[in-house]
Amino acid sequence: MARLPRLNLPNIPQHIVQRGNNRQITFVEPDDYVIYLEKLKYYAKEYNVKVHAFVLMTNHVHLLATPTTSNGISKLMQSLGRYYVRYFNQAYKRTGTLWEGRFKSTLVDSDNYFLVVSRYIELNPVRAGMVKHPAEYTWSSYQHNAVGKTIGLITEHSLYMQLGKDKLDRQARYRALFDDEIPSITVDEIKTATDKMWVLGNDKFKKQVEAMAGRRASPLPKGGDRKSVSFINARK
């Protein structure tokens, strides 16, 4: 079955995941993380992409970012990926690929999922058993969003700005969101939508995306005569 085109729409946040090939290590020394973040900031500015949240794990990366153009995310990830592979191969005297095929991405329904996805990203080191609390992990936007350490590549989303009247208030209210555990069903929903590159949102949001993108935003229903369920009928 032909692969559906990637969903790329301007001004809608995307959750992006890029993994090391065969889950190999992509960050070894602290300098590797620093170089990646510096170039992420550089290319985000070049391609007019606003980065709201991130975490750099040892063998993969999560980003929450909003492009201002339809191809901004793709250009950012392509340029960043090429640069970092050249750097990594030179630094560690290796050759060949580093990243696993295409990066994964999903459009995020801001009203219902933005802050959840931001927490999901910053909680990755906790779920991986690397730390007990996200504040203990250096290479994450939690340091900016919750702790108050300025990270220049971060652009604060309007929903984050609405959390409080000033920086300290917003940071405190954002930290308070982490008092509640993200339900496992929601974690699975985020993982599935990103891995399958479907849309993460409610039915209304998915229909809006379908109308703008001209393609399905979610998989066809299982069972029955799938061929009789057309995208055109689904939009009626």
Structure, explained:
It is a single chain. By secondary structure, the protein is of the alpha+beta class. It has a single domain (14-200), classed as Transposase IS200-like (Alpha-Beta Plaits, 2-Layer Sandwich), CATH 3.30.70. Helices cover 44% and strands 11% of the residues. The chain is built from 10 helices and 4 strands; from the N terminus they run E-H-E-E-H-E-H-H-H-H-H-H-H-H. The protein has helices spanning 30-46, 72-91, 110-122, 124-127, 142-147, 158-161, 167-177, 184-196, 203-213, 231-234; strands at 14-19, 49-56, 60-67, 104-107. Strands 2-3-1-4 form a 4-stranded antiparallel β-sheet. Helix 1 (30-46) packs antiparallel against helix 2. The longest helix is centred in the middle third of the chain and has 20 residues, at 72-91. The protein starts with 13 loop residues before the first strand and ends with a helix. Mean pLDDT is 92; it is low at 224-236.
Describe the structure in brief.
By secondary structure, this protein is α+β, with helices and mostly antiparallel strands.
Helix-strand blueprint:
Elements: E1 14-19, H1 30-46, E2 49-56, E3 60-67, H2 72-91, E4 104-107, H3 110-122, H4 124-127, H5 142-147, H6 158-161, H7 167-177, H8 184-196, H9 203-213, H10 231-234
Antiparallel strand pairs: 1-3, 1-4, 2-3
Helix pairs in contact: 1-2
- Helix content range of the residues, please? 40-55%
- Sheet with most strands: 4 strands, antiparallel
Number of domains: 1
Rg result: 18 Å
The number of helical elements comes to 10
- Order the strands across the largest sheet as they lie in space: 2-3-1-4
Mean pLDDT: 92
User: What structural category arises from helix and sheet content?
Assistant: alpha+beta
CATH class: Alpha Beta
Termini Cα gap: 24 Å
| Order of SSEs | EHEEHEHHHHHHHH
How many strand units?
4
CATH superfamily: Transposase IS200-like
CATH topology: Alpha-Beta Plaits
CATH architecture: 2-Layer Sandwich
Using the alpha-carbon principal axes, give the shape.
Answer: globular
InterPro entries: Transposase_17, Transposase_17_sf
GO molecular function, one term: transposase activity
Protein name: Transposase
